[in-house]
UniProtKB/TrEMBL annotation:
GO cellular component, one term: membrane
Protein name in the entry: Glycerol-3-phosphate acyltransferase RAM2/GPAT1-8 HAD-like domain-containing protein
Main location: membrane
InterPro entries associated with the record: HAD_RAM2/GPAT1-8
Transmembrane segments: 203-226
GO MF assignments: glycerol-3-phosphate 2-O-acyltransferase activity; phosphatase activity
GO biological process: cutin biosynthetic process; phospholipid biosynthetic process
Family membership: Belongs to the GPAT/DAPAT family.
Domain of life: Eukaryota
């Protein structure tokens, strides 16, 4: 069995800096040297429920990770039988993406220190040396054929590999069918951000926030004082336009249970616009949206749990 060990940041991902992914975690949850990385981990995770970090890492981060994947590195990585990913980022943030979309067999990264109540302390209990030792334990009897990583990497496990390759990667034309496979696609869940918050983008977001909050407050106030029937007619004043084709179905009654609408789920605006069209505040089931979005939603929201039986009962009600 041929094995490959690859760094995540700067290798499988083109961007070495994990700043934007911690910002995504912070935006959705709010509500590079090793010291800088630990500082980011602390400020972006301290006080968060670990279950919330897992939920955000499952629902939001894969879309942005996929946008940053180096396809040439993926071709090399996917051509081996056993695939191991090594990362300085907390494992919980990358494991879902690397296992399901990059088809990794093992993910070794730092581990968040968690209180007995389920809160992240912001500290990690792994360092570069311990991560390298854990990689070594995986290959006691079978050393990896290839190591993928940056020439300036501080990881020490490359001495285990028979060969080390640095980016940029150049693949030859003799690729088998497995190597030509693309990573499994990501279904984009609705979220607060549609663009990866790099340092420059984050600065623009922060500068826009005061004006954005003011405009949002005005819109929320108008929606609260005006009846829903007039919202479609004034939407153009806020840069929107609602076009209705066909006749909306009748509302639920004692003799009719109503109609179940299935939206494209690009954003939470789908059921909001739908409510405006049928002139009724339709309850919407949500998955992994922020608490702020739930509070500001003009329609009732019902949070799903990810447990099939529990969610089925909620949807039925």
């Amino acid at each position: 069995m041929e094995s490959v060990v690859s760094e995540f940041e700067g290798t499988l991902l083109k961007d070495l800096d994990p700043f934007s992914y911690f910002m995504l975690l912070a935006f959705e949850a709010s509500g590079l040297d090793d010291a800088r990385l630990k500082l980011m981990v602390f400020f972006m995770t301290v006080g968060l429920w670990v279950s919330e970090i897992e939920s955000i890492s499952r629902a939001f981060l894969p879309k942005f990770y996929m946008d940053d994947v180096d396809m040439e590195a993926w071709k090399v990585f996917s051509s081996h039988d056993r695939r191991v990913v090594v990362t300085k980022t907390p494992r919980v943030m990358v494991e879902r993406f690397t296992n399901e979309h990059l088809r990794a067999d093992e993910v070794i990264g730092t581990e968040l220190v968690v209180t007995r109540f389920g809160f992240a302390t912001g500290f990690v209990k792994s360092d570069i040396a311990s991560i390298s030792r854990r990689v070594a334990k995986l290959f006691v009897d079978d050393e990896p054929i290839l190591g993928l990583g940056r020439a300036t990497s501080s990881f020490q496990f490359y001495s285990l590999c028979k060969e080390k390759v640095h980016p940029p990667f150049v693949t030859n034309q003799n690729l088998n069918d497995q190597q030509l496979l693309r990573p499994l696609p990501v279904i984009f869940q609705d979220g607060c951000l549609v663009k990866r918050p790099t340092p420059s983008t984050t600065l623009l977001i922060l500068l826009w926030l005061p004006l954005g909050i003011l405009l949002a407050t005005i819109q929320i106030f108008i929606r609260l004082i005006l009846p829903m029937q007039v919202i479609p007619y004034i939407s153009h004043s806020f840069g929107g336009k609602i076009v209705v084709k066909g006749k909306p179905p009748p509302l639920a009654s004692r003799n009719s249970p109503g109609v179940l609408f299935v939206c494209t789920h690009r954003t939470l605006m789908d059921p909001v616009i739908l409510s405006n069209v049928v002139m009724c505040k339709i309850p919407a089931v949500t998955y992994s949206i922020s608490r702020i979005s739930e509070i500001l939603s003009p329609i009732p929201t019902i949070r799903l749990t990810g447990i099939r039986e529990v969610d089925a009962e909620k949807i039925k009600k």
